[in-house]
Amino acid sequence: MTENKYSDNREEHGHAEHHIVPIPLYLMVFGILIVGTIATYLVAFIDLDSVFAGANTLAALLIAFTKMTFVALFFMHVKYSSRLIWLTALAGFFWLAIMFAFTMQDYLTRGAGVFTR
Predict the structure, then answer these.
(1) CB 20 within 8 A of CB 74
(2) Backbone angles phi, psi at 42, to 5 degrees
(3) What pLDDT, on the 0 to 100 scale, is given for residue 81?
(4) 77 in the Ramachandran plot: left (φ > 0), alpha (ψ -120 to 50) or beta?
(5) Which residues, other chains included, contact 16 with Cβ-Cβ below 8 Å and sequence gap of 6+?
(6) Mean of the pLDDT values across residues 58-78?
(7) Which among 14, 76, 86, 112 is least surrounded, fewest beta carbons within 10 Å?
(8) Is 91 a member of any domain?
(9) Residue closest to 20 by CA, chosen among 69, 68, 77
């Protein structure tokens, strides 16, 4: 028997079934985000500049990147999405890396300077 061209074939039209995430997983991710927020707060009080200049900023950015990854993967459901969504998310991360690279290139090539009024 031939397939009707108007049949409701979800895979044919690119509509996948929705993935249902269990509530304990959401609570675990929420806990990770809370711990990351507390860690960011605590890192602000520790002077890591003795390790190298900007270590506090780097530590805060690493924590923020980890939190961003959990939000994107679980709350935005990227983990359970198609390859096109993954490509879009990775393109956003790539663009963010480019912007950070240009910002750091500008920042690191400046002289010490004297800032007076």
Answers:
(1) no
(2) -70, -35
(3) 85
(4) left
(5) 10, 82
(6) 89
(7) 112
(8) yes
(9) 77
Segments in 7-79 forming alpha helices (H): 23-45, 55-70
| Closest C-alpha among 81, 102, 86, 62 to residue 14 | 81
Confidence of residue 13 (pLDDT cuts 50, 70, 90): low
- Domain limits for position 30: 21-75
Q: pLDDT at residue 111 above 90? A: no
Asked if residue 113 is part of any domain, the answer here is no
Claim to verify: residue 89 and residue 66 sit in the same structural domain: no
Dist. CA 10–CA 33, nearest whole Å: 35
- Tally of domains within the chain: 2
